[in-house]
Amino acid sequence: MTELGWIIVALVPFISCAAGQTEAHYEWTTLDWLKAHNASHELHNVTTADGYQLQLQRLPRPGARAVLLVHGLLGSSLGWVCLGPAKSLAFQLHQLQYDVWLANLRGAYPHGRQHIELTDVMDEFWSFSFHEHGAYDLPAIIDHMAEVTGSEQQSGEADREAPTRQVLLIGHSQAFNAFLVLCSLHPRFNQRIQLMQALAPLSRLHRQVRFDAAQVRSLMKFVKKRQKSSKFELFPPGYLRKLCQRKHEQCEYYTKQYAGSAKSNKKLLEAFNYEHLLQGGSAREIKHLQQIWKSGDFIAYDYGPMQNMKIYNGVEALRYNLSRISVPTILYFGETDAIATPEGVHAIYAQMMNSVRSVKRIESPKFNHFDFLVAGEVKTLVNDKLIELMEKFLEGKLSYIIE
Ligand SMILES: *[C@@H]1O[C@H](CO)[C@@H](O)[C@H](O)[C@H]1NC(C)=O
Ligand SMILES: *[C@@H]1O[C@H](CO)[C@@H](O)[C@H](O)[C@H]1NC(C)=O
Ligand SMILES: *[C@@H]1O[C@H](CO)[C@@H](O)[C@H](O)[C@H]1NC(C)=O
Question: Partial AB-hydrolase lipase domain: which residues (predicted)?
Fold first, then answer.
């Protein structure tokens, strides 16, 4: 696969917002979508322990069960709203009386781009991977939610019966890595998360993806080139649009490799007009994934022996201790996922038998990594199933089925 191929692989998540929209919507953010559909919403600013200022969006139902939706690599909360109220998970959960919160992790454009001291044109701003998403961003977000919902309960706004301050978590792709970091580094969150539902989870990449060493090398070459020219943000807004205008056919070809059905593809290709499909990512995010792929182990970022000694008290990078994770977890995979392959997801299950309660195959012969966000049939194939299993779990009736 060429460099372009790799870029497309990384880019497709942004394409989720194209469905049936006209040009006026090409620059919409999450907020624009919420406003356009007159969805009542709140904005919450959260500052992490290391100074990032993240904006959360909430479709509020004070007193109801709280659900937190977490995006994957290079994504943002946009992916949970941009198919509109008829299809997108955020709207659907809200209609079903859930208190819905949308995370924007550091780097996400435009709601994860503030810092108390740094700006997003500085190298330092971009020194993060999913490690920081799990070690800093998720704790700040989940603590903030508890504070807000806790005070609503005290002030008597809630009239439904004693909701807990636990959170139901739903994450796509790399969000699962951040969740693992969160619960292994800060074990108190094992009690705070009632259920984790992981769509196309990544975690260990070794030997599970449908690409090879040459492809990884070509991606890393691209990353290095960007860094060399001091472009720390990997895929700035407008990048995909320009690229695909120049090389339309290649663009189309590679999109088809990573997003499943013909139906989805039609919409995907429309999306190349969007200015803000790319919601930003750091070189270190890609490098960290590469390190995991190489080592075959779920390790923290490897800074090299000298730095590792300072940071981890050992020459090797920290191995996350997955046996600390006890949150009940449901894993979802697509039959033809090129990144979170069925084998890969089963390998996660094998490592986390204590917490995995079910492994669900999406009922479609073709279902790829980004279809979890962009498929025309996402409501029936993914969202309805996910909500059904979540409700069964909450009633204590989830069956242990490994597919
Ligand atoms: C939102 O509200 C405005 C003004 O009340 C109305 O014109 C518009 O049609 C509404 N949009 C939707 C999607 O309901
Ligand atoms: C959140 O931050 C934004 C910009 O950083 C600011 O405009 C807004 O007023 C803040 N909102 C709250 C509730 O503090
Ligand atoms: C990992 O965590 C488990 C459970 O807390 C603990 O018993 C075990 O000693 C830890 N292993 C390492 C290598 O730290």
Answer: 34-82
